[in-house]
Amino acid sequence: MANPLMSIFSGMAGGNNSLLMQAVGAMMRGESPQDFMRNLANSRPELRNVDLNDINGSARRICQERGVDPDKLSAEIRQKLPK
Predict the structure, then answer these.
(1) What is the pTM assigned to this prediction?
(2) Cβ(82)–Cβ(24) under 8 Å?
(3) Contact 41/48 with Cβ under 8 angstroms?
(4) Would you state the pLDDT for residue 13?
């Protein structure tokens, strides 16, 4: 079974992992999720409708639109992040 997180990022990144790497880089630089999404939305039209005041709600909406369980996805992400 494909990893849902990778599937979402891969689809948005045109089949490669550059978007995921950008997200990891932003996290390592200490960039806030809002700033990362704002910068990303400037270059990716599919993200321009993301409500930056409610990132969690937007993430849930995107997951639901793509048939991904947001709670399961969150659990998978937490498992992969370093402690």
Answers:
(1) 0.50
(2) no
(3) yes
(4) 45
Task: Please report the DSSP string for the chain in residue order.
Answer: ---HHHHHHHHHTTTSSHHHHHHHHHHHHT--HHHHHHHHHHH-GGGTT--TT-HHHHHHHHHHHTT--HHHHHHHHHHHS--
Q: What is the pLDDT of residue 83?
A: 66
Instruction: Give the end-to-end CA distance of the chain in Å, rounded to a whole number.
Output: 25
Structure confidence by residue, pLDDT tens digits, 16-73: 457 778 888 888 999 988 788 888 888 888 777 778 788 788 888 888 988 999 899 8
CA distance 74 to 34: 18
